[in-house]
Amino acid sequence: MDRFAAVERALRKAAPHLLLDVVTGALREQYGVERAELRLADYGLTTLQRVEDVPFTTEPVSLRDSPQGRAFGAQEPYVEPKAVQGTATVHMPVTVRGDRMGVLTVTLPEEHCTAAHLAEMQHICEALGHEIMVAERDTDLYVLARRATRLTLAAEMQWHLLPGRSVSRPEFSLGAHLEPAYAIYGDNFDWSVSAHHLTLTVTNGMGQGMEAALLTNLVVNALRNARRAGLELADQARLADQAVYAQYRGELHASVLLLRVDLGTGEIDAVDAGSPRMWRLRGRSVETVDFDAQLPLGMFEETAYVAERLRLEPGDRVLVGSDGVFDGVSRTGERYGERALARSMSAHRLLPAPQVPQAVLRDLGEYRGSRPLDDDALVVCLDWFGRQ
After folding, report:
1. Residue 143 is inside which H or E element, if any?
2. Which part of the chain is the PPM-type phosphatase domain (predicted)?
3. Is 0.90 topped by the overall pTM?
4. Which terminus of the chain faces fewer neighbouring Cβ atoms within 10 Å, N or C?
């Protein structure tokens, strides 16, 4: 672990844009690594893009059929079959608190590819991930590496709002994904974890393009402001409702589902203010979780909201989808949310929560056939383990 501490210190002292150079030099000195390559997952979670000074210089690799993708999906180091005698190539996931960021690939002498060294280098990957998150305040290098193509301005604003794509704690695992990743409008998710609660919000802003993005920015920040002021869930909805109405006077509104999970008991307080819907997989049974429908935020002045309560049991899986998911229709006109979504949840029940949203959206794409999405589609998946 002394070697790990030395690399961690070097990373902390490095300039934001030189993290990969520093970690490569430290790995060379400590483990005999000959070369290192860092790739980050793109916004669409379809490719791994290389971190390099000039973006798009190196071809991306697929997340679905590549050695790097295998390490990313399994979230454990993958050692490639030996191509050169005496040399090993290892792909290691770069993940921070459950948020899957990318993969670090290293080539090193075979005798250094031991279980102990792999465990130490995996710790270094976690430290690298932490430093990347901090460095993004000061450089665009890692943000640029995440995009396979240019984002629309609305999508740029929406991705900037997001807390991450996944998070894990002993009590739960949570993942989320948005499509179309490079041209999203008003859909958004947000979460915050404290010692006692997980607060999760799913937002569907009215309108398209910049209009929807600006509305959602107002809603998300109003909800954060209320949450950070210590308000109860219903009062958080009320404050955000007042902020939206004050700005748009009822002309625009936003549908939001607010959830607060007690990490000790599994009890959920919920405020259903619009269209995002929730399903629960318990055992092999999928059922819709119905709440009392309340008015979307900003529709009328001084709307009062009431929180409802339900309880999760260890082993439960909860999925929340925006109207772009459950209102998607097949070639025959059947809505996706009626039966197909339940089949998709059951089919992917063995996948970890961070991989479920993309799998469900992939099923939605096949369900719709060749017809492109005509609305944002957002899926959030929560696996509840309970506190031991």
Report:
1. helix 141-145
2. 169-384
3. yes
4. C
